[in-house]
Amino acid sequence: MTTIILLTISNIFMTFAWYGHLKYRQSPLVWVILISWGIAFFEYCFQVPANRIGSYEFSTVQLKTIQEIITLVVFCFFSYFYLNEEVGLNQIIGFGFIVLAAYFIFK
């Protein structure tokens, strides 16, 4: 459970670092890059320990799969609540197929 919690926190930081600036498109790109790097530092502070701890329980393929599923969930919430973008039925169905793929990876 520690791995999943750390990866979730990491993905929240990552999502803000990668996409948070889209809400402020008028900001100078150089500032956006510097701020994103600063946010990404905290992402790594959670991701690296999550993968280190998780490697005792999961294979690297499983760790990557967990990370991708968490990324999709975090991104859906981020898109809806922060960027005010709807997540459509096609995206939900596509994400469902990714979750189904994860099921087979862990089987």
Please tell me about this protein's structure.
With 107 residues, the chain is mainly α. Helix content is 79%, strand content 0%. It has 4 helices and no strands. The protein has helices at 2-19, 29-54, 60-81, 89-106. It is flat, with a radius of gyration of 15 Å. The model has no long low-confidence stretch (mean pLDDT 94).
Task: Report the C-alpha radius of gyration, rounded.
Answer: 15 Å
Quick check: average pLDDT? Answer: 94
Low-pLDDT runs: none
The description of the largest β-sheet is: none
Distance from first to last alpha carbon: 19 Å
In percent, how much strand structure appears in the residues? under 5%
| Secondary-structure element order, N to C | HHHH
The helix count comes to 4
Protein structure class: mainly alpha
Outline? flat
Q: Give the strand tally.
A: 0
Helix-residue proportion: over 70%
Can you describe this structure in just a few lines?
This protein is an all-alpha fold and 107 residues long. The chain is built from four helices and no strands.
Keywords:
79% helix; 107 residues; mainly alpha; flat
What's the structural blueprint in terms of helices and strands?
Blueprint: H1 2-19, H2 29-54, H3 60-81, H4 89-106
Helix pairs in contact: 1-2, 1-3, 3-4
